[in-house]
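User: Hey, my collaborator sent me this sequence without any context and asked if I could get a structure. I don't really work with proteins. Can you help?
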Amino acid sequence: MKKKSKFGLPLLAVFLLAVPAFSQSCALCYTQAASSGARFISGLRDGILVLITPPMFMSVGIIWLAYRKRNQFRPDIDTADQFREDRESL
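Assistant: No problem. I've predicted the 3D structure and written it out in structure-token form, which is a compact way to encode the shape of the chain:
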């Protein structure tokens, strides 16, 4: 029981303190973007793409590396033989 409270209390504190982070949608920013011209909106969209692209490619790269290295530390299992055994068992 003590172990659960040891991890549960900090986890609860993190969730309670993170609530203000969900309300960071700035009304002034929204009205400024809505009342601006086409050039500003185009720049805003380009900025969003510039900020989203690197994390997306990094995530894809990490997933690709994890997939590629998934059996690196399991030399006792040959994937082709394992695949055949799995298919035969069905």
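In plain terms: Helices lie at 2-17, 27-34, 38-68, 79-89. You can pass these tokens on to your collaborator as they are.
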